[in-house]
Amino acid sequence: MLSRIAESMFWIGRYVERAEDTARLLQTHLRLIIEETAAHEVDACRNLLALMNVDHVEDPTLTDVLRVLGYDPAEPTSIYFSYASARDNARRAREVIPLDLWECINTTWHQLPTTPFGPSGAHVFLNWARERSAMFAGISRGIMVRDDGWQFMSMGRSLEQADMTSRLVASASLTHGSTQWPAVLRGCGGHDAFLRTYRGLYTDREAAEFLIVDARFPRSIMHGLVAAADSLQRVAQNNPLTAVHAAPALRSLGQLRARLEYADLDDLLGNLNHEMSVVQDVCAQVALAVSTSYFAAAESPAWTTEGTR
Amino acid sequence: MADVLSGYRTGEAFDEMIDAEGSVRPSYQAVYSALSRSSSDDLRMIAESLANNYTQAGVTFDVGGVERPFPLDLVPRVIASPEWEIIEAGVAQRVRALEAFLSDIYSDARVISDGVIPSQLVTSSTHFHRAVWGIQPSNGVRIHVAGVDLIRNPDGDVRVLEDNVRVPSGVSYVMTNRNAMVMAMPEAFANQRIRPVAGYPTRLLTALRKAAPSGVEEPTVVVLTPGVYNSAYFEHTLLARTMGVELVEGRDLECRRGKVFMRTTAGLQRVDVIYRRVDDEFLDPVHFRSDSMLGVPGLVNAARTGGVTLANAIGNGVADDKLIYTYVPDLIKYYLREDAILPNVDTWRLEDDQAREEVLDRLAELVVKPVDGSGGKGIVIGPRATKTELDTLRHRVTEDPRGWIAQPVVQLSTVPTLIEDCLEPRHVDLRPFAVNSGDDVWVLPGGLTRVALPAGELVVNSSQGGGSKDTWVLSPPVHRLSNHRHSIEPSDEADDQPKPQTDVPLTVAKIPIAVTPKIVETQRQQQDQQQQTRPWSCGC
Hints:
The complex is a heterodimer. By secondary structure, chain A is mainly alpha-helical.
């Protein structure tokens, strides 16, 4: 597969996942902010934006949050930007993407909001953003050949999911109070499953355990890491000559998995912010490693090897 | 404001939003200003989004086999914090008194030997079950969940209309109403703190676990439903889901040697606490209706031998009998040595000859209710009844005076309600829910506000064309700090206290969001140019 195409596939996966996760993050916190007093609105909004590494908005309000994470095409953290970029990448990989999937992405792009909206209109948009991602996932799972393109897309999606879940988890500790974890669990769609698993009564500890290390839950960080490593391994198997390139990324993923899996939960909770930024760090490293090994490699040694064969 | 509130005329009833002078009550200021900024189109859109939300989520109730979305009105019912404190204390007091009463009459019945109530009052109640006489619940709790119906009369006093200590329903709507409102009307929540309602399932689960038979360390709790055709089935699923426990039907359970088990793919699994939403009469074909398909044979014996806890206990119906209701202020005095915080609605006991005669004379101006009814069934409202209905009623009351009580027609208080395109006053009641864990009685802040949608209608039951409103209990304005952070035992502090001003340093998220690296501007421009310079080659 062309490196360029592989890269596009990787980014389609990332962007669609990011759109969905941003919608989930926003829905979770919109509700929390609305149910709190307005006195804390600015703090809550600033924390939320900081979580997404946005620091250029002074004294943000709900409207700013909705703009920066929601509908502003110029903000790289917005859902709008994510879906537009997913479509942009899909256009570059148009020939390898099944027609149905392309139409799904393209329709999503056409339906992106053209006018700003306030908190009351937000839920319709955010529900829509999640549904489009679900549709994308369903179509791709249903009809795509499990070739390298699929693997790169899954890899992007899984990495992004681990990264974004870590941000959502960090958001639980950001704001004070005891009602954060249920809201975060609900944001991941995992509240009911969690309650069943832990039979209703739980502490922050169990909630963190569920979202971080329970690989059975598909939005947990662990699940994302396992799935990303899995895709990477498949790519390595399919391309024995470049298998060696997968090693650094696989090593990082494995180390992070071990770190989380064998961590003392109390330590993890005590340093939640730090641990979660480690997750984000590793996700960035892995993405970089994949990029240098498989995408950028097209111009360097790998090209020579292929040429001499 | 000209649009939606201009035609708002309060009647003779107490209006929750507008006082007698025509000004807005303080607790309603925020809602009022949100409403007055909206046009009727805005309101219609909100109403639609509420209805869609409910249809989608399947928040329905069953009327005669048809599933309908539960009508949720967009104007909330607001209760100021000082008033709520009274209601809360009054409801908890009632539950404690009724709990003591039940424990008494199912053992030595001192209340009768002390002459507080006549013995035939208890024994003639259709819900007094001798089968459960002498059963001692493991932590002494029989009323794990209670719903106390309150109304407000034209003088503005809150009064108790009836107690529900058998299987009170409606709490699920309290939770779903809040969810729907936060999404549909976020602006109305601004600038005020409304006490959360989401803590209910955890409270209930904690109470149910505490009620487990003694010696059980990790009790298995289940919710027992009559099945999908029950009108409250939605509520049963919601409670099971939010407590993380199994929802079972009678046929999923079996009793063996005084213990209860559920049939699972992993074999029989012991059940310790059953939150049952099946009526007494259907619960155990061995003791009650032998044709019941909903119950489990042997359940009463299992409860008696301490093999299982039933919540609420069997036989509670005697405490919410409407004739017993007239004695509740006496019971409160007798058991708790306190005066009733919330008074009853004036009620005539029809067994008393003089009272009966007076009532029969004035039948056309009174409300007459069967003592064991619920859901608004069998109620006759004098001023609205036809002559034939009154004659039938007169006959039935004379035949069975124990079966009926009479009350004056109370003009329930009103709240603005969206009818077509305008807001009009509609009558409401309030059902707060109390959970008794044995250690304390906790009252869910708010409760279910039911609203009668037809103009002037006083019966607010959902099976009689009623809707509901989200109920907002405002937090006290005092800002106290709290360090309570854990969710295992939600306390009021954890739930409700204003959060301290945030002091979280923004140390997180050093990791930026990555974006596609290769969209290099020059490359893009070149690609653009290529298309521009060679337009004819498109499609090659």
